[in-house]
Specification:
This protein is an alpha+beta fold and about 650 residues long. The protein folds into four domains: about 5-30 and about 275-460, Rossmann fold; about 40-120, Sandwich (Immunoglobulin-like); about 120-170, no CATH class; about 190-275 and about 465-530 and about 540-650, Sandwich (Immunoglobulin-like), CATH 2.60.40. It is built from 13 helices and 27 strands. The chain has helices spanning about 20-25, 205-215, 230, 300-310, 340-350, 360-375, 400-410, 425-435, 445-455, 460, 585-600, 610-620, 625-640; strands at about 40-50, 60, 70, 75-80, 85-90, 100, 110, 125-130, 130-135, 135-140, 145, 190, 195-200, 250-255, 265-270, 285-290, 320-325, 330-340, 380-385, 415-420, 440-445, 465-475, 480-485, 505-510, 515-520, 550-555, 565-570. The strands form seven sheets. The protein has a six-stranded mixed β-sheet, with helices on both faces. Strands 12-23-25-15-14 form a five-stranded antiparallel β-sheet, with helices on one face. Strands 13, 22, 24, 26 and 27 form a five-stranded antiparallel β-sheet that branches. Helix 12 runs antiparallel to helix 13 (about 625-640). The radius of gyration is 27 Å and the shape is globular. The termini are far apart. Residues about 1-35, about 115-170 and about 645-650 have low confidence and may be disordered. It holds the Pfam family YfbK_C. It comes from Hymenobacter duratus. Keywords: Signal. InterPro entries: CarboxyPept-like_regulatory, CLCR, Uncharacterised_YfbK_N, VWF_A, vWFA_dom_sf, YfbK_C.
Length: about 650
């Protein structure tokens, strides 16, 4: 027996095991407890019946369960309903508790009425509340109105013998307590002095769903939370499938730049080969779930459990799944189990409970060990880490975690990171782990995002077509005077790294698309930098549009390969007006423009929120799943949140 199969007393109380009766059940007998039935999501808003104003901090519980959330600052909420439960209980200090059945529309708005009998005394003079009063949790995100800096709440309920004073905690600043890597935005480069642009691809999409979380809560995201390339690559585009032996196709396009009419926009895009789920190689998956105390809540561990349940439904008999958890220590909850035994896998997921400190390093080591011990040579070997990134036991520093993951990736095991939670989200650490672990990073802000990542994009998220994918673009100085890569700041590589097969780069999953945009200054356009007095240079003579604008080279390796293969494409021809460009370029440009507005980029030019929404509207295409329509709504929401937006034309 392997040592990690031994019972770990350090994990006692962290998760519950099956009862003896369940353990004696015939393993071939199908198991479908009520709690494991299909989930559905519900959303709505809770208001004061007399004023119509939104009520923050209302407790919304699924009747008969411990699943619940608190309403946001404007009274809004969203919640995943476990099993067949369809009744919600709305309770708030000073208001009558209400029970409502979720309608078929999945939108449930509730108006609460004040109930003076519930309270003997409530004195509020302002601030934010924190604590637990008469069984009601009051969190930092909940506010009470008033001019004073402090609040004192005294509750005398039916079960209380004395008034209990509670004092406010400071209202959190958006992103406070969360960690994001600093971004120094790319600037323009002179083609004559620096003709090569080299970078690693990035298929992560965590930044977009995280930005969405802020905007839907009525807050602007921190600037460093906005990674423009991840926002662009969140969306699927209609690029052609590869036709040859290479695992991806390459598409290039040249058009006018929407935020600077004197400049041009270059799109370089990769389209990974679509692979039907039943054609994917066998999967050796290890779910590594953070069950520390910081993961408590429906938007954290509860959301992870709901997402993993959805993923389990996609498993095939040839797939195998193990479940490792970590809190104060790490342990194996479920040994490698065939996908045909869904009941066993679902029970293990359902029994997880949060509590304790966070030994992230120990959890990663154990998960990789389990994956290595069950390695499938021609299969998909992957650790799926679900966490808020708040590691506080063992390896804590980014450098220590990077060394651990870099060492482990040599085994051929890939890494997928699923981020959850808010207020202490360690985005910087999770992005680093995915980057260094030959993997991808997604942020789950709701159950639909979990379904998108783990079900709709099952192959792209969990199956790698090509690893260490690098791009190197060489610009022709006869047509391009300056260029700027939009985004990819933390994926930049030195020119010599392109041909170095030991240099790590990004991975491309089945069906994934990767889009890179360059803003270029054509020869003959107004200069950005004055000509140098003491430098002798050739006079600018624009080349004809039939000449090459650029050459793009790509290197990639097979998933278990060590030697890279080279592809090369050229782009020539005139720049077409942006309104006549493809839907792919126009929509990608609108997302890039939105990212620059959120970051208040020095390069946003004439961009406005209104123009961004209009450009995106013209490029929505079929939009079967509604993500592009949602993007337009987010642009309009951000416009109303930006202080002093009129100063730079964001109307």
């Amino acid at each position: 027996m392997k040592p990690y199969l031994l019972p770990l007393l350090a994990l006692a109380g962290t998760f519950a095991f099956c009862t003896a009766a369940e353990a004696q059940r015939n393993p071939t007998e199908p198991v479908r407890p009520a709690a494991l039935a299909d989930t559905m999501s519900v959303h709505g808003r809770v208001t004061d019946a007399s004023t119509g104003q939104g009520l923050p901090g209302v407790t919304v519980l699924v009747k008969g369960t411990s699943t619940g959330v608190s309403t946001n600052h404007d009274g809004s909420y969203s919640l995943a309903l476990p099993g067949q439960h369809r009744t919600l209980v709305f309770s708030f200090i000073g208001y009558t508790t209400v029970e409502k059945t979720v309608p078929a529309t999945r939108e449930l708005n509730v108006a609460l009425r004040a109930d003076q009998k519930q309270l003997s005394e409530v004195v509020v003079t302002g601030g934010a509340l924190q604590g637990k009063v008469a069984g009601v949790h009051i969190g930092r995100s909940e506010r009470v109105k008033g001019d004073a800096a402090k609040a004192r709440v005294m509750i005398r309920g039916a079960n209380s013998q004395a008034s209990q004073p509670y004092y406010p905690a400071p209202q959190p600043v958006p992103g406070e307590g969360e960690s994001y890597a600093s971004i120094q935005e790319n600037g323009f480069h002179s083609t004559r002095k620096d003709p090569l642009s080299t970078f690693s691809i990035d298929v992560d999409a965590a930044s977009y769903s995280n930005v969405r979380r802020f905007l839907q809560q009525g807050q602007l995201p921190p600037r460093d939370a906005v990674r423009v390339e991840e926002m662009i690559n969140y969306f699927q585009y209609d690029f052609p499938q590869p036709t040859g032996a290479d695992p991806f196709s390459v598409t290039t396009e040249l058009a006018g730049c929407p935020w600077n009419p004197a400049h041009q926009l270059v799109q370089v895009a990769l389209q990974g080969r679509q692979v039907a789920t039943d054609k994917l190689p066998p999967a050796n998956l290890v779910f590594l779930v953070d069950v520390s105390g910081s993961m408590y809540g429906a938007d954290r561990l509860g959301l992870v459990q709901a997402g993993l349940r959805l993923l389990v439904k996609e498993l095939r008999p040839q797939d195998r799944v193990a479940l490792v958890v970590y809190a104060g220590a790490a342990g194996l909850v479920l040994p490698p189990t065939p996908g045909s035994k869904r009941g066993e896998i679902l029970r293990a997921i359902d029994n997880l409970q949060a509590g304790g400190s966070t030994a992230g390093g120990a959890g990663l080591r154990l998960a990789y060990q389990v994956a290595r011990d069950n390695f499938q040579k021609d299969g998909n070997n992957r650790v799926v880490l679900a966490t808020d990134g708040d590691f506080n036991v063992g390896e804590q520093s980014d450098d220590a975690m990077e060394r651990l993951v870099v060492q482990e990736r040599e085994s051929g095991v890939f890494l997928t990171v699923l981020g959850v939670g808010q207020g202490n989200l360690q985005d910087k650490k999770m992005e680093l782990l995915a980057d260094k672990g030959n993997g991808n990073y997604a942020y789950l802000d709701n159950l639909d995002e979990a379904r998108r990542v783990l079900v709709r994009q099952f192959g792209g998220t969990l199956f790698t077509l090509a690893k260490d994918v690098k791009l190197q673009v060489e610009f022709n100085p006869a047509r391009v005077r300056e260029y700027r890569l939009i985004g990819y700041e933390n994926r930049a590589l030195a020119a010599e790294d392109f041909n170095n097969d030991r240099k790590d780069a990004g991975e491309l999953g089945a069906g994934h698309t990767v889009t890179a945009l360059y803003e270029v200054v054509p020869v003959g356009a107004p200069v950005l930098v004055d000509k140098l007095k003491y430098q002798a240079g050739a006079a600018e003579k624009p080349a004809p549009v039939s000449a090459d604008l650029l050459t793009v080279k790509m290197r990639y390796k097979e998933p278990q390969g060590s030697k890279s293969q080279l592809l090369e494409r050229t782009l020539r021809g005139p720049a077409i007006p942006v309104e006549r460009a493809s839907e792919n370029l126009r929509f990608a440009a609108s997302v890039a423009q939105f990212g620059m507005l959120l970051r208040e980029s020095d390069y946003r030019g004439e961009a406005t929120f209104g123009a961004t929404a209009k450009l995106a509207e013209t490029a929505r295409g079929t939009d079967a799943e509604g993500y592009r329509a949602e993007f337009v709504r987010l642009v309009k929401a951000a416009e109303g949140l930006r202080p002093g937006a009129e100063s730079y034309g964001a109307r």
